[in-house]
Amino acid sequence: MVRAMQRVEEIAAFALGRVNLSRVPVNRLSTLARYGRLSRVQTIERAPEPRRTALLTAVVRQLEAQAVDDALDLFTVLMANRLISPARRASNRERLAMLPQLEKAARILAKASKILAKELVLVAEHEADLYVAALWAAVEEAVPRTAVSGAVATAEALVPEDDGSAEAAMGEKPALRYNTVRPFLSLRVLLLGVSPA
């Protein structure tokens, strides 16, 4: 990564990236760059002055763009391999570790829900009054009330209400891997002409 950034820095030292070429069509600039890169040095030396400068400027601009793209691609690969993949694996391990507790809570809640649904259907069919104490008595025949309360608490603790809980958990892991990110912090800022936000 350091070598890629050094390459960008070496090419950017020519300061041709700051030359305003907005009046030159993009396809013309790429044609000049391609011609300049395929030409021999002697051919470029013998070119008349405005053409020689145009060829060299186009070549350096293209090389700078390629160097920046290569550095960004390398940075993306490094971040994926050293930061995001380990964070994803750690998040998956944690979620798998919670799975037995969640399964137990789900079984208890499924039993209680099944009994509640059955009792509510009976109340609706007979158009009888609904008695909470009778419902709890029916549920407690299969599952103790404390087990139901514990299962609800476990489910609430292990399954957050937002839909993106897995993504949120995975997103928190890279922040904890400062030692992995630290080598990249020493790299210089690459100005891409974007807003500071």
UniProtKB/TrEMBL annotation:
<protein>
    <submittedName>
        <fullName>Uncharacterized protein</fullName>
    </submittedName>
</protein>
